[in-house]
Amino acid sequence: MSKSNRNKRTNTKATAAPVRKTAQGAPADRPVALKVDHVYKSFKLPTERAGSLKNTIFNWIRGIRGYRIQEVLKDITFDIRQGEFFGIVGKNGSGKSTLLKLISQIYTPNSGTITTNGKLVPFIELGVGFNPELTGRENVYLNGAMLGFSRDEIDAMYDDIVEFAELGDFMEQKLKNYSSGMQVRLAFSVAIKSQGDILVLDEVLAVGDEAFQKKCQNYFFEAKRQKKTVILVTHSMPDVRRYCDRAMFIQDGRISKIGDPDEIADAYSDSFLPPKTAAQIAAEKAEREAQRNVVTVNNVDILIDGEPQKFLAEKEDFTIALDFACDRDIQAKNLFIDMYDGRNVPVLSFPLSMDEHVKIAAGDHVAHVKVRNVLAFGDFRINIALQSDAERLTVCENACRFHIKGFAAPVMSVINPEEVVDISID
Fold first, then answer.
1. What is the DSSP letter of 119?
2. Among positive and negative, which fits the CA dihedral 253, 256, 260, 261?
3. CA 370 to CA 375: how far, in whole Å?
4. Where would I find the H helices in 169-277?
5. Which residues form the ABC transporter domain (predicted)?
6. What is the pLDDT of residue 302?
7. Cys staple from 76: which of 39, 168, 264, 326, with CB 3.0 to 4.6 Å?
8. Residues 266 and 104 sit within 8 Å (Cβ to Cβ)
9. 346-351 and 335-341 as β-strands: parallel, antiparallel, unpaired?
């Protein structure tokens, strides 16, 4: 559709076949990669010392056990489907790391079962097994052997490991002379060569300096594109929003919420805020209901060749697909798509029409907005806003998030209106 008639209405509405979901939001048409079923885990914490065997027996006869039970995980049940990028978040002490160690078979549960379908590779403590008295080269071969690689396989991948770690000038030095960041970079570069069906990651996206973190991010970008099953435990909500298909919020050893990663990230961040009063909750609810009475946003996607994507290459043009409903006729020029970068700086704001006479009739609609991609490396989010006579009212915040892949440092990106090459409303 050309610019001259880009807002012309048609009788055809683009629809996509619905994806069946489980009760927890996972795609039901994929096989289960990991199933955690009613898992409990507790530890015995000593409360007093027994100086001798005699004292221990005497305390036992008197009913003094000398320890207390700490319940860490309480009735944890969820499953992860093949090809999912699944996030686990929670405050320190909530049970996240214990859950990962149960999944990785480092711990065994008190009760319940954990079932995996495929080879599971944990990246929980990078560098375990490295010897500080050996050189970087020798540690690559040592750690590779621990991961199950033969010497010939390590020979074949050695140059790639060194190049990824950016440690070519240091490989003949002993590991004890490395900085902590250099050690982690080497360990991660070896670990990602392990070809597992399920990757278990505990805060490994925070390794190294900024340049190396971008390499790690691009590695996980490719893992997501290749539909690998990934479990990520993190305190970084941008990583949850950027990578995860679903996420789970653990509080006090129980699953508080599981589902959409944006909702989970918001719930985690909100858990650090003081509780809201009943009046504040009622006012926010009334405001949301008032906005819904005009426009309801059902879904927003970034499309590449008609397929939803969360990751885009630099200069890869895209289409914004907006599925929404109006309860009454509105002016198309009053419905805006706003885009912000990761620093909350606006990079684009435009209405669905510049023509004051174009109306959007009451009912269901899908708008497609084709955009030339001039954005640089970084994270971006889309809000949908409604313009009233007096002010712009937010209809849906964080309606969609996406990430531009690349190695360049984030820079100021602004999409000029001329880069919006086509708009259609069905």
1. -
2. negative
3. 14
4. 180-191, 210-225, 237-243, 261-270
5. 34-277
6. 93
7. 39
8. no
9. antiparallel
What are the phi and psi torsion angles at 247 (to 5°)?
-150, 165
What residues have CB less than 8 Å from 103, skipping those under 6 apart?
A: 34, 36, 114, 116, 120, 122, 200, 231
Of 17, 20, 16, give the one whose Cα is nearest residue 29. 20
What digits encode the pLDDT tens for the residues 203-243?
765 556 667 777 777 777 777 777 889 998 988 888 888 88
Mean pLDDT of 159-164: 90
User: Which 3 state secondary structure label does DSSP give 396?
Assistant: strand
Query: Which class for 46: exposed (0-12), middle (13-18), buried (19 or more C-beta within 10 A)?
Result: exposed
Strand segments, DSSP code E, in 62-207 are 67-81, 85-89, 111-116, 120-123, 198-202
Is a pLDDT exceeding 50 seen at residue 253?
Answer: yes
CA distance 383 to 103: 37
Decide if pLDDT at 414 tops 90: no
Question: Higher model confidence: residue 213 or residue 74?
Answer: 74
Which domains does the chain possess?
32-271 (3.40.50.300), 293-425 (2.70.50.60)
Q: What φ, ψ does residue 389 adopt, rounded to 5°?
A: -65, -30
pLDDT: which is higher, 269 or 196 = 269
Task: Specify whether the CB–CB gap between 21 and 27 falls below 8 A.
Answer: yes
Strand-by-strand arrangement of the 363-371 sheet: 307-308, 295-304, 318-326, 363-371, 420-425
Q: How far apart are CA 242 and CA 250, in angstroms?
A: 20
Tally the residues of the chain.
426
What DSSP state is assigned to residue 328? S
pTM for the whole structure: 0.67
